[in-house]
Write a structure and sequence with these properties.
The longest helix has 17 residues. This protein is of the alpha+beta class. The protein is built from three helices and six strands, in the order ααββαββββ. The radius of gyration is 14 Å and the shape is globular.
Length: about 140
């Protein structure tokens, strides 16, 4: 059975973007999340490869789940992505996000995105703001 943190389950209930991606949370805990999806034809750009925003969105979901599972609402301040290899239609992508720094108001999260061959197609670094509101 999948290990999905209760806060992540709550977030998923209203998360339309993760639903549109048809992404599935494989594992989540405070400070970590692994999310998987398959790249679809409607996600391709004019070059016939998957648009970079798709890998960004998948990583963004994993990052949000990893950061928020610590119990406080966390929102993005700054996120940067490096695209390392093209993603093709039909590729199975896995984003793994890990909290690297957790302070009172700031959280830093690193993520990698791998394809079905285990090749790293992108990596992401994010800084978030931890609000007072708790889940």
């Amino acid at each position: 059975m999948k290990n999905i943190h209760p806060i992540v389950q709550k977030m998923l209930a209203d998360d339309r973007m993760t639903a549109w991606l048809k992404a599935e949370v494989l594992e989540s805990s405070p400070g970590f999340c692994r999310v998987e999806m398959v790249a679809r034809e409607e996600m391709a750009n004019g070059f016939g490869i998957v648009h970079g925003s798709i890998t960004f969105a998948l990583a963004d979901s994993a990052i949000a789940f990893a950061a928020n599972a610590h119990g406080r609402h966390a929102v993005s301040l700054n996120t940067s992505i490096r695209h390392l290899a093209p993603v093709k239609i039909g590729d199975r992508l896995v984003a793994e996000a890990t909290v690297t720094t957790l302070k009172h108001r700031i959280v830093n999260v690193d993520a990698i995105i791998l394809n079905q061959n285990g090749d790293r197609v992108a990596d992401v670094q994010a800084t978030g703001y931890r609000k007072k509101e708790e889940w």
